[in-house]
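Troubleshooting log. The previous run stalled partway through. Resubmitting the same two chains, unchanged.
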Amino acid sequence: MELILFIITALVAVGSAFMVITQRSPIASVLFLVLTFFCLAVFYVMLGAQFIAAMQIIVYAGAIMVLFLFVLMLLNLRGTQSWEVGSPIRKWLGFAAAGGILLVAATAVKSVGMTGTELDPALGTVESIGRSLFNRFILPFEIVSVLLLGAIIGTVAMVKQKQSEPAEEKGGEEQ
Amino acid sequence: MTVDLSWYLWLAAVLFCIGVAGVLTRRNALIIFMSIELMLNAVNLTFVAFSRYLTNIDGQLFVFFVIAVAAAEVAVGLAIIVTIFRHKESVDIDKVNLMKW
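Second attempt completed without errors. Output:
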Protein backbone atom coordinates (compact mmCIF):
# COMPACT_ATOMS: atom_id res chain seq x y z
CA MET A 1 0.00 0.00 0.00
CA GLU A 2 2.75 2.39 0.94
CA LEU A 3 4.61 1.30 -2.18
CA ILE A 4 1.69 2.13 -4.47
CA LEU A 5 1.19 5.48 -2.80
CA PHE A 6 4.88 6.27 -3.11
CA ILE A 7 5.01 5.39 -6.82
CA ILE A 8 1.89 7.36 -7.71
CA THR A 9 2.92 10.41 -5.71
CA ALA A 10 6.46 10.25 -7.08
CA LEU A 11 5.18 10.19 -10.65
CA VAL A 12 2.88 13.13 -10.00
CA ALA A 13 5.67 15.06 -8.27
CA VAL A 14 8.24 14.51 -11.03
CA GLY A 15 5.66 15.17 -13.74
CA SER A 16 4.47 18.43 -12.25
CA ALA A 17 8.07 19.51 -11.53
CA PHE A 18 8.84 18.95 -15.21
CA MET A 19 5.76 20.99 -16.13
CA VAL A 20 6.98 23.81 -13.88
CA ILE A 21 10.05 24.36 -16.03
CA THR A 22 8.42 23.79 -19.41
CA GLN A 23 5.22 25.82 -19.27
CA ARG A 24 4.94 29.02 -21.28
CA SER A 25 2.78 30.95 -18.86
CA PRO A 26 4.19 31.63 -15.37
CA ILE A 27 0.77 31.16 -13.78
CA ALA A 28 0.68 27.54 -14.95
CA SER A 29 4.18 27.06 -13.59
CA VAL A 30 3.13 28.38 -10.20
CA LEU A 31 0.13 26.05 -10.07
CA PHE A 32 2.24 23.04 -11.01
CA LEU A 33 4.75 24.01 -8.33
CA VAL A 34 1.92 24.09 -5.78
CA LEU A 35 1.00 20.56 -6.91
CA THR A 36 4.63 19.50 -6.42
CA PHE A 37 4.61 20.94 -2.91
CA PHE A 38 1.46 18.98 -2.06
CA CYS A 39 3.12 15.78 -3.30
CA LEU A 40 6.14 16.57 -1.14
CA ALA A 41 3.85 17.04 1.86
CA VAL A 42 2.47 13.55 1.18
CA PHE A 43 6.04 12.23 1.22
CA TYR A 44 6.76 13.98 4.50
CA VAL A 45 3.70 12.36 6.07
CA MET A 46 4.81 8.97 4.72
CA LEU A 47 8.19 9.56 6.36
CA GLY A 48 6.53 10.37 9.66
CA ALA A 49 7.40 14.07 9.66
CA GLN A 50 3.98 15.47 10.41
CA PHE A 51 5.12 18.86 11.60
CA ILE A 52 7.29 19.41 8.52
CA ALA A 53 4.41 18.35 6.29
CA ALA A 54 2.10 20.88 7.94
CA MET A 55 4.77 23.57 7.66
CA GLN A 56 5.31 22.72 4.01
CA ILE A 57 1.62 23.25 3.25
CA ILE A 58 1.19 26.34 5.38
CA VAL A 59 4.45 28.17 4.60
CA TYR A 60 5.46 26.96 1.14
CA ALA A 61 2.20 26.23 -0.63
CA GLY A 62 0.16 28.66 1.40
CA ALA A 63 2.37 31.72 1.81
CA ILE A 64 5.32 31.61 -0.59
CA MET A 65 3.29 30.53 -3.61
CA VAL A 66 0.60 33.06 -2.80
CA LEU A 67 3.34 35.68 -2.74
CA PHE A 68 4.47 34.49 -6.17
CA LEU A 69 0.93 34.77 -7.47
CA PHE A 70 0.57 38.27 -6.07
CA VAL A 71 3.80 39.37 -7.74
CA LEU A 72 2.70 37.77 -11.03
CA MET A 73 -0.57 39.63 -10.77
CA LEU A 74 1.29 42.86 -9.97
CA LEU A 75 3.73 42.52 -12.87
CA ASN A 76 0.87 41.68 -15.25
CA LEU A 77 3.19 40.22 -17.87
CA ARG A 78 1.73 40.81 -21.29
CA GLY A 79 2.36 37.93 -23.63
CA THR A 80 4.30 34.87 -22.67
CA GLN A 81 7.96 34.49 -23.38
CA SER A 82 9.08 31.69 -25.56
CA TRP A 83 10.29 28.43 -24.10
CA GLU A 84 13.64 28.43 -25.77
CA VAL A 85 16.54 30.44 -24.49
CA GLY A 86 18.26 32.75 -26.99
CA SER A 87 20.30 29.99 -28.59
CA PRO A 88 19.46 26.25 -28.55
CA ILE A 89 23.06 25.59 -27.55
CA ARG A 90 22.36 27.19 -24.18
CA LYS A 91 19.29 25.01 -23.73
CA TRP A 92 21.16 21.79 -24.46
CA LEU A 93 24.06 22.87 -22.28
CA GLY A 94 21.58 23.46 -19.47
CA PHE A 95 20.13 19.98 -19.88
CA ALA A 96 23.63 18.50 -20.07
CA ALA A 97 24.60 20.24 -16.85
CA ALA A 98 21.47 18.92 -15.14
CA GLY A 99 22.27 15.44 -16.44
CA GLY A 100 25.81 15.75 -15.10
CA ILE A 101 24.51 16.68 -11.68
CA LEU A 102 22.16 13.70 -11.85
CA LEU A 103 25.16 11.45 -12.55
CA VAL A 104 27.02 12.85 -9.55
CA ALA A 105 23.94 12.36 -7.37
CA ALA A 106 23.56 8.81 -8.72
CA THR A 107 27.06 7.86 -7.58
CA ALA A 108 26.25 9.25 -4.15
CA VAL A 109 22.91 7.46 -3.90
CA LYS A 110 24.41 4.15 -5.00
CA SER A 111 26.82 4.21 -2.09
CA VAL A 112 23.99 4.43 0.46
CA GLY A 113 23.45 1.10 2.17
CA MET A 114 20.06 -0.39 2.94
CA THR A 115 18.81 1.03 6.20
CA GLY A 116 15.57 -0.70 7.04
CA THR A 117 14.67 0.71 10.41
CA GLU A 118 11.18 0.87 11.79
CA LEU A 119 9.41 4.21 11.72
CA ASP A 120 9.72 5.81 15.15
CA PRO A 121 6.28 7.32 15.80
CA ALA A 122 7.61 9.88 18.26
CA LEU A 123 10.15 11.26 15.81
CA GLY A 124 8.28 13.84 13.79
CA THR A 125 5.85 15.15 16.33
CA VAL A 126 5.64 18.81 17.26
CA GLU A 127 6.80 17.94 20.77
CA SER A 128 10.03 16.29 19.66
CA ILE A 129 10.86 19.13 17.29
CA GLY A 130 10.00 21.68 19.93
CA ARG A 131 12.21 19.99 22.48
CA SER A 132 15.24 20.12 20.20
CA LEU A 133 14.41 23.54 18.88
CA PHE A 134 14.24 25.20 22.27
CA ASN A 135 17.09 23.29 23.87
CA ARG A 136 19.94 22.71 21.44
CA PHE A 137 18.95 25.02 18.60
CA ILE A 138 17.71 28.04 20.48
CA LEU A 139 20.39 30.31 19.00
CA PRO A 140 19.61 29.51 15.33
CA PHE A 141 15.94 29.91 16.17
CA GLU A 142 16.46 33.45 17.45
CA ILE A 143 18.76 34.27 14.56
CA VAL A 144 16.08 33.13 12.10
CA SER A 145 13.67 35.56 13.72
CA VAL A 146 16.19 38.37 13.23
CA LEU A 147 16.66 37.20 9.64
CA LEU A 148 12.94 37.39 8.97
CA LEU A 149 12.87 40.89 10.47
CA GLY A 150 15.73 41.92 8.19
CA ALA A 151 13.94 40.43 5.18
CA ILE A 152 10.77 42.37 5.98
CA ILE A 153 12.65 45.63 6.40
CA GLY A 154 14.67 45.05 3.24
CA THR A 155 11.63 44.17 1.16
CA VAL A 156 9.64 47.17 2.28
CA ALA A 157 12.62 49.50 1.81
CA MET A 158 13.18 48.21 -1.70
CA VAL A 159 9.69 48.48 -3.11
CA LYS A 160 8.73 51.69 -1.38
CA GLN A 161 8.31 54.41 -3.97
CA LYS A 162 9.23 57.97 -3.25
CA GLN A 163 6.20 60.12 -2.51
CA SER A 164 6.98 63.28 -4.54
CA GLU A 165 5.22 66.54 -3.60
CA PRO A 166 3.57 68.18 -6.62
CA ALA A 167 4.16 71.76 -5.33
CA GLU A 168 7.83 71.20 -4.69
CA GLU A 169 8.29 69.66 -8.12
CA LYS A 170 6.68 72.60 -9.85
CA GLY A 171 8.85 75.05 -7.93
CA GLY A 172 11.95 73.10 -8.94
CA GLU A 173 10.94 73.09 -12.62
CA GLU A 174 10.29 76.81 -12.73
CA GLN A 175 13.77 77.54 -11.48
CA MET B 1 9.35 -4.80 -1.23
CA THR B 2 9.22 -1.78 1.04
CA VAL B 3 10.05 1.77 0.19
CA ASP B 4 13.72 2.22 0.95
CA LEU B 5 15.91 5.23 1.67
CA SER B 6 17.53 5.12 -1.76
CA TRP B 7 14.13 5.55 -3.45
CA TYR B 8 13.62 8.85 -1.67
CA LEU B 9 17.17 9.92 -2.49
CA TRP B 10 16.66 9.11 -6.17
CA LEU B 11 13.43 11.09 -6.21
CA ALA B 12 15.07 14.05 -4.50
CA ALA B 13 18.01 13.90 -6.94
CA VAL B 14 15.63 13.91 -9.93
CA LEU B 15 13.69 16.86 -8.53
CA PHE B 16 16.94 18.70 -7.88
CA CYS B 17 18.14 18.14 -11.43
CA ILE B 18 14.81 19.30 -12.85
CA GLY B 19 15.28 22.46 -10.81
CA VAL B 20 18.83 22.90 -12.13
CA ALA B 21 17.58 22.47 -15.70
CA GLY B 22 14.91 25.09 -15.05
CA VAL B 23 17.42 27.59 -13.67
CA LEU B 24 19.84 27.16 -16.56
CA THR B 25 17.30 27.02 -19.39
CA ARG B 26 14.58 29.56 -18.76
CA ARG B 27 14.78 33.29 -19.33
CA ASN B 28 11.90 34.43 -17.17
CA ALA B 29 13.22 35.53 -13.78
CA LEU B 30 10.14 34.25 -11.95
CA ILE B 31 10.44 30.76 -13.44
CA ILE B 32 14.11 30.72 -12.45
CA PHE B 33 13.09 31.65 -8.93
CA MET B 34 10.54 28.86 -8.84
CA SER B 35 13.17 26.38 -10.02
CA ILE B 36 15.38 27.47 -7.14
CA GLU B 37 12.51 26.75 -4.76
CA LEU B 38 12.17 23.33 -6.39
CA MET B 39 15.84 22.64 -5.67
CA LEU B 40 15.40 23.69 -2.05
CA ASN B 41 12.45 21.35 -1.68
CA ALA B 42 14.41 18.46 -3.15
CA VAL B 43 17.07 19.04 -0.50
CA ASN B 44 14.34 19.18 2.16
CA LEU B 45 13.09 15.77 1.03
CA THR B 46 16.62 14.38 1.34
CA PHE B 47 16.93 15.75 4.87
CA VAL B 48 13.59 14.35 6.00
CA ALA B 49 14.30 10.95 4.43
CA PHE B 50 17.63 10.70 6.25
CA SER B 51 16.00 11.87 9.46
CA ARG B 52 13.49 9.03 9.28
CA TYR B 53 15.92 6.30 8.30
CA LEU B 54 18.60 7.30 10.82
CA THR B 55 15.99 8.06 13.55
CA ASN B 56 17.55 11.45 14.17
CA ILE B 57 15.46 14.58 14.60
CA ASP B 58 18.21 16.87 13.33
CA GLY B 59 17.22 16.42 9.70
CA GLN B 60 13.73 17.72 10.30
CA LEU B 61 15.09 20.62 12.34
CA PHE B 62 17.29 21.62 9.46
CA VAL B 63 14.28 21.46 7.15
CA PHE B 64 12.51 23.83 9.54
CA PHE B 65 15.33 26.34 9.17
CA VAL B 66 15.55 25.85 5.40
CA ILE B 67 11.84 26.61 5.06
CA ALA B 68 12.18 29.74 7.20
CA VAL B 69 15.22 31.01 5.29
CA ALA B 70 13.56 30.20 1.96
CA ALA B 71 10.55 32.28 2.96
CA ALA B 72 12.80 35.27 3.71
CA GLU B 73 14.72 34.71 0.48
CA VAL B 74 11.56 34.60 -1.61
CA ALA B 75 10.34 37.88 -0.13
CA VAL B 76 13.59 39.70 -0.84
CA GLY B 77 14.06 38.08 -4.26
CA LEU B 78 10.58 39.00 -5.42
CA ALA B 79 11.15 42.57 -4.20
CA ILE B 80 14.29 42.69 -6.35
CA ILE B 81 12.41 41.32 -9.37
CA VAL B 82 9.62 43.88 -8.90
CA THR B 83 12.18 46.70 -8.66
CA ILE B 84 13.94 45.53 -11.83
CA PHE B 85 10.59 45.27 -13.58
CA ARG B 86 9.79 48.84 -12.63
CA HIS B 87 12.93 50.02 -14.42
CA LYS B 88 12.91 47.74 -17.43
CA GLU B 89 9.28 46.73 -17.97
CA SER B 90 10.51 43.17 -18.47
CA VAL B 91 11.56 40.18 -16.36
CA ASP B 92 13.75 38.73 -19.08
CA ILE B 93 17.13 38.09 -17.48
CA ASP B 94 18.90 38.47 -20.80
CA LYS B 95 17.94 42.14 -20.71
CA VAL B 96 19.48 42.71 -17.29
CA ASN B 97 22.95 43.20 -18.76
CA LEU B 98 23.98 46.63 -17.49
CA MET B 99 27.22 45.31 -16.00
CA LYS B 100 28.09 43.10 -18.96
CA TRP B 101 31.51 43.85 -20.31
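Takeaways: Residues 12 and 42 of chain B are 5 Å apart (CA to CA). Residues 58-88 of chain B form the longest helix (31 residues).
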